[in-house]
Design brief:
Blueprint (H helix, E strand, L loop, with lengths): L19 H26 L1 H20 L4 H7 L6 H32 L6 H7 L1 H7 L4 H7 L3 H24 L5 H21 L17 H29 L1 H39 L1 H28 L1 H8 L8 H26 L3 H26 L1 H26 L1
Helix pairs in contact: 1-2, 1-8, 1-11, 2-4, 2-5, 2-10, 2-11, 3-7, 4-5, 4-6, 5-9, 6-9, 8-9, 10-11, 10-15, 11-12, 11-14, 12-14, 14-15, 14-16, 15-16
Subcellular location: Cell membrane
Protein name: PST family polysaccharide export protein
InterPro entries: Poly_Biosynth_Transport
């Protein structure tokens, strides 16, 4: 077999459509715009408003995780490019999913409002129901471009949508729209992204209802769905507890500390996984051993860089919050110091999951999520009783470490 050249930095000094530069540029611009939006709106509105909109977005995240089809990842990982009719079936499935989620959220809005202390903000839940509708009708050509590693085009679409989200959200916040400004910006950004997937990407799927021809994706995608369901428990479970027991004000502080840590640490690795998953998949199809060496190089770099960031951010936590968000957010500093550790582990997990999916073993990531869930079930009740919200955050650390350890063990054993 012809060897595949894999330098230490495989996309150095390149600006081709498939270069890592575009993923990094997308990361810097999109995450920067998201940071500007949430931090500015958080400073304008305060913890309670952020907590209220967080409940609405939490409902969307729960519904989307429970109904995750795994089709996007299956299209990227599969050996064959989907046919025109298969692409149409993918679009039909995703559009139907988005419509069902939106209708379900709208129907359950009064119930969720009463459960999470939002009886006066039902409109936030109704506005959030529009998000899965808009996302569901996007063209699945986006997945084909991802499979082909068209990172330049993807970066253009994602940055355009993020700019629209940030600009419109901030204008609405300054105009007095309150918590609705966050949702208005998100809806505008998703509408632009959906439009661009149809106008700038090909091949376009047929717009006739069809569910036939994608059964061969089920074996792969079912593990993605299972992982999404377990990750729903892992990623949203703590927020549900805080929202239910303590209300929007406490959730706002909890969510902002988590969000800031995520933006500074985990988002970089999650965005980089957009490059790593198709890149690992392509190299694995050509040369398994060379692809494995590439994976280990990325993993070591990520671990070293994240460790340094964690140290710096923990030391700078209090002045950072006071400068960026203001004195009203200082009670969230202890949580932030824990969350930077959690997000660093989550960033390592993003690299591990990219590799496992690329080699056709998504079930290992799902098993790791189940282990994490089991650890949380055992530790959260005790930790919450002894240390309150801080205990929940440390229990999350233990769960994330357990999941990462299991995936590393399986990867080494498969070598």
């Amino acid at each position: 077999m012809r060897s595949v050249r894999l330098p230490f930095f495989p996309a150095r000094a390149r600006f081709d459509h498939d270069a890592a530069f575009w993923v990094l540029l997308q990361q810097v611009v999109v995450r920067g715009l998201v940071a500007v939006k949430f931090l500015a709106i958080g400073r304008i509105l305060g913890p309670e408003a952020i907590g209220a909109v967080s409940v609405a977005l939490l409902a969307v995240a729960i519904a989307e995780s429970l109904s995750d089809t795994g089709l996007a990842q299956a299209v990227v990982q599969g050996n064959e490019v989907p046919s025109h009719s298969e692409l149409g079936a993918v679009w039909t499935t995703l559009a139907a999913r988005g419509a069902l989620i939106g209708l379900l959220l709208a129907a359950l809005a009064p119930f969720m409002g009463s459960q999470f202390h939002l009886s006066g903000s039902i409109g936030l839940l109704l506005a959030a129901a529009a998000l899965p509708l808009v996302r569901g009708v996007a063209s699945p050509a986006y997945f084909i471009v991802t499979r082909q590693r068209g990172f330049q085009k993807i970066a253009g679409i994602e940055t355009s949508a993020a700019f629209a989200d940030c600009a419109i959200g901030l204008v609405c916040a300054l105009a007095g729209a309150g918590a609705y400004s966050v949702l208005i910006g998100l809806i505008a950004g998703d509408m632009l992204k959906t439009t661009l997937t149809w106008t700038t990407m090909s091949p376009r799927p047929p717009l006739r209802p069809s569910f036939a021809g994608i059964g061969h994706y089920v074996n792969f995608s079912r593990w993605i769905w299972a992982g999404s369901v377990v990750n729903l428990l892992l990623n949203q479970f703590d927020k549900v507890i805080v929202a239910k027991l303590l209300g929007p004000l406490q959730l706002g502080a909890y969510q902002m500390s988590s969000k800031l840590a995520q933006m500074l640490l985990a988002d970089a690795a999650i965005a980089m996984s957009q490059y790593l998953f198709p890149t690992f998949s392509e190299h694995h199809r050509k040369d398994v051993h060379a692809a494995r060496r590439l994976f280990y190089r990325y993993l070591v770099l990520a671990a070293i860089g994240l460790a340094l960031f964690v140290i710096v951010l923990r030391l700078a936590a209090q002045p950072l919050f006071e400068l960026v968000l203001g004195p009203a957010w200082l009670p969230a500093v202890p949580l932030f110091r824990i969350f930077v550790i959690n997000m660093a582990i989550g960033a390592v997990i993003a690299v591990l999951v990219s590799w496992l999916r690329a080699i056709g073993l998504p079930k290992v990531a799902t098993h790791a999520s189940i282990i994490q869930a089991a650890v949380l079930c055992v530790t959260v009740p005790v930790a919450m009783h002894l240390w309150g919200v801080t205990g929940i955050a440390w229990a999350m650390t233990l769960g994330l470490g357990s999941a990462a350890g299991w995936m590393l063990f399986r990867i080494v054993r498969e070598a």
